[in-house]
Amino acid sequence: xxxxxxxxxxPRSDDTFVELEKVTLAYxxxxxxxxxxxLTDLRIDQGDFVALVGPSGCGKSTILKLVxxxxxxxxxxxxxxxxxxxxxxxRVGMAFQNPTMLPWLTVRDNVMMPLKIVPPFRQEYxxxxxxxxxxxxxxxxxxxxxxxxADKHPWQLxxxxxxxxxxxxxxxxxxxxxxxxxPFGALDQFTREELWAVMQELWMKLKPTVLLVTHDLxxxxxxxxxxxxxxxxPGQIVDDAPVPFPRPRTIDMSYTPEFVTMTQRLRELIVxxxxxxxxx
Amino acid sequence: MDQQMRRRVWSxxxxxxxxxxxxAFCWLFNISDIVLPKPSQIIxxxxxxxxxxxxxxxQTLYTTLVGFGFGILAGVLLGVLVGSSRLAYDxxxxxxxxFASIPKVAVVPIFVLWFGSGTVPAILTAMIMSxxxxxxxxxxxxxxxxPELEDVMKALRASKLDILWNVGLPRTMPYFFASLKVSxxxxxxxxxxxxxxxxxxxIGNVMMIASSNxxxxxxxxxxxxxxxxxxxxxxxxxxxxSKITGWAHRKDEFAMG
Lengths: 280, 257
Fold this sequence. Notes:
The structure holds two protein chains of two kinds. Chain A is an alpha/beta fold. In chain A, 34% of the residues lie in helices and 23% in strands. Chain A has eight helices and ten strands. Chain A has helices at 60-68, 107-117, 121-128, 132-143, 159-171, 189-206, 217-223, 257-272, and strands spanning 16-27, 34-45, 49-53, 75-80, 83-84, 92-96, 177-181, 209-213, 226-231, 236-242. A six-stranded mixed β-sheet of chain A has the order 6-7-8-3-9-10, sandwiched between helices. Chain A has a four-stranded antiparallel β-sheet with strand order 2-1-4-5, with helices on one face. In chain A, α2 (107-117) crosses α4 (132-143). Chain A starts with 15 loop residues before the first strand and ends in an 8-residue tail after the last helix. The relative contact order of chain A is 0.18. In chain B, α6 packs antiparallel against α8. Chain B has helices at 2-28, 39-48, 50-83, 86-100, 108-115, 119-143, 147-155, 160-197, 203-212, 216-244. Chain B contains ten helices and no strands. In chain B, 80% of the residues lie in helices and 0% in strands. The interface between A and B is medium-sized, with 27 and 24 residues.
């Protein structure tokens, strides 16, 4: 059993993979300006698993988009793999709450889509999409429990199955960076817990650097090495703590007093981080 | 399936019934051929004049298809351009609506002025008639691509062209084919208008001459030919549509429980 790797996620370590330096992000101009992200610093080590939790509208997804280069920071710098985001040719995988499968493709072709786009795979796509790549997609689908569904179309699958396929699509091109934006948010409790186990297994095997945005504290505790708590208006990281539980983690673990104490502490942080007091 | 069969049978009954009623109406009220010829008479005319009508039919079909082909080409290109970004869509849309709302009959004299009478203005009119539904549908299909889908692709560092080819265009196919069905009938309208105004060939021209000779059965024969060609092409494109974009019309019976 491997010990928690989170203990050494110390600032200034040399295997920093993602770094946000004095980053802010604001939309609009003048009086109507909305600060989505206040002054934020964040470091993520190579192969680490970091969860961002916080109330809605606190800029969790904003951080994700900054790191992927989908939006540009208003000020400050975002580095990925030692270079400014966009300049670095880092392979990124993404999965959202909505599985966004293309309805005209089979599940397998959907999963293989990144191979069609991302170098170095795209050059080989024509020659290998019916052999090596196909086998790779099938193997991955089997791993998440979708063996035999590769030739189905997305509308023939349930929400949980689609989300599994979506994870496969996020991982097929062996991304160094995996971005998960509430990927299990729309699922029922049992499916969700099943997928946590699948996710953990895939992470332990492939070791991508993962940034997970979630509302679910249990999910964050189960999956992540580190949990960052954000507050809103302006969005900011107010707490950053390691998750000391050994891997592989289990659902039973989430009922231990230590785990409950941890999620309770997170909960209090988030509640106190709310901008205006609400009647609970 | 049973339900669908029954619906089809009733459609056919309705069509036959329509012509029977028409025939009966003409007999009953003793209506003159010059006002409204009987369907039986139109059929006779069609058969009698078939050798003379045939080249004109081909001419109209050829003109329409060529014009429609150019219309598809130009329509898709313009649609991709307009739909390529939200900005382009918002900027170009008013102009597009402006052009689309011009009565196309009004441009035929301009084409005749530029290219003389004959096949060229007919092709151009067919093209201009069929272009706008295609542009609008392709542009709308592209411009309404789900932002999350685009994010997935952008995170993979997909180029604009990659996104267009792998997400935008396939997603637009149902819109595109829906517009083709509308457009092909409009292309016929364009051809016939132009043939009527400025040509010495084609069904439009035949109908023009026949009506000035008070040969009303021949006018109606022309109408029937046009209707038949229009329906046939509509059916062809419907078939292609259902083959290619079946995923967009998925039936519940395919879905799993």
